[in-house]
Amino acid sequence: MPTTSFSNLRCIFAWSSVVLLPMLIILAIGIPWWQRLQTLNTRLTRDQDQLVRYQQLVATIPQLQAELAQVKTQDKNTKAFYFSAATVSLAGAQLQEQVQEMIRTAGGRPVSTQMLPLDEKEQPPRVRIRLQLQATNEALLKLLYQIEAARPFLFIDQLSIRSAANDSPDPPAARRRLPNNAPPPVPPRERDDLTVRLDIFGFVLGSNAP
């Protein structure tokens, strides 16, 4: 009887070994493989999410490029409204030269030009000049139109106009008494020259010292 029981135990142990050993081998190989598979799945999901985000970013590149080009264009156009000079003095020289050329183009005659003091508190700084000129009515209108359309922007601060005819004395023919039967004298050509005094200013971009 003991011999039979021992034989049965040996059989059970042998069969158990046959069954358990492959299972242990399978578990020893399968568990790391399953863990590796889970890691790969997690990484794949994360990479897919990143890929979707990258695709979304790539899809916005044309829009961003268009917006960047628009900003650059706007910045370039905005800079055209200002004097670009290292100092306000240089900007003032540019302003004087520009306005004097406008006066000559319009048919007027510049008389004097004066640089006005700078207000250091203004940002962006403003460059101002005071000038005096002589022009006809037509020439003055042309000059005002040029100032309105000028780039960089120009602004008129003060304007005074005086007719040169008011300063000239009456001609002698107007004071001389003529006979009753004499024809009226031909009046001299009326002077249409105007003496104009105005302050003009513009803004300076990126200037430093006066």
From TrEMBL:
Q: Where is this region: Disordered?
A: 165-192
Write down what this protein is called: Type II secretion system protein M
Could you tell me which species this protein originates from? Answer: Thiospirillum jenense
Pfam families of this UniProt entry? T2SSM_b (PF10741)
From the record, give the transmembrane residue ranges.
Answer: 12-34
Q: Which domain of life is it from?
A: Bacteria
Sorted keywords for this record are: Membrane, Transmembrane, Transmembrane helix
Q: What is the lineage of its organism?
A: Bacteria, Pseudomonadati, Pseudomonadota, Gammaproteobacteria, Chromatiales
